[in-house]
């Protein structure tokens, strides 16, 4: 039981060192915020599209019940309009989902680019000091083929 508690403390200490020591692994809170508004917008457009298709079915049923075959030309034009509108609304819902995916990709690229920039800046500082020291001691050498 004593080993278990010490292991837990070591893990907590290691986690604290990792979080505080490596700024490359840190992620800003704004980088992981979800796109809740676009998600709701996508669901709303899809719900409206489903509602329009249900209204279409009810309208066709009511028209055939009340007027029979005489209502077919009117019902076909109304059905084509409602189907096109429902398809457009469903497509806009898909576009909202696509925007969410694009936003996640842009955020991931921003995080990775920031980590890469921080990593390369750390290397330049270390190698710049070494290069300055080494080139001053080295005599000029001829360049090219002899």
Short structural summary:
Helix content is 81%, strand content 0%. It has 146 residues and is mainly alpha-helical. It has a domain at 37-133.
Q: How many E-type strands?
A: 0
Specify the overall morphology: elongated
Mean pLDDT: 78
Q: For the terminal residues, how far apart are their CA atoms?
A: 73 Å
Tell me about the biggest sheet? none
Residues in β-strands, percent: under 5%
The secondary-structure element order is: HHH
How would you characterize the overall build of this protein?
The protein has three helices and no strands. It has helices at 2-21, 36-67, 72-137. Helix 2 (36-67) packs antiparallel against helix 3. The longest helix is centred in the C-terminal third of the chain and has 66 residues, at 72-137.
Keywords:
3 helices; mainly alpha; about 150 residues; single chain
Q: Secondary-structure map with pairings?
A:
Blueprint: H1 2-21, H2 36-67, H3 72-137
């Amino acid at each position: 039981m004593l080993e278990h508690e010490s292991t837990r403390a070591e893990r907590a200490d290691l986690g604290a060192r990792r979080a505080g020591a490596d700024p490359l692994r840190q992620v800003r809170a704004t980088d992981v915020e979800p796109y809740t508004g676009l998600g709701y917008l996508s669901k709303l457009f899809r719900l409206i599209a489903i509602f329009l298709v249900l209204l279409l079915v009810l309208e066709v049923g009511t028209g055939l019940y009340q007027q029979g075959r005489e209502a077919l030309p009117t019902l076909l034009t109304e059905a084509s309009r409602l189907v096109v509108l429902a398809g457009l609304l469903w497509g806009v819902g898909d576009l909202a989902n696509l925007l969410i995916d694009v936003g996640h990709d842009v955020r991931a690229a921003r995080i990775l680019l920031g980590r890469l920039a921080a990593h390369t800046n750390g290397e330049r500082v270390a190698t710049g000091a070494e290069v300055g020291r080494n080139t001053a001691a080295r005599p000029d050498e001829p360049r090219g083929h002899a």
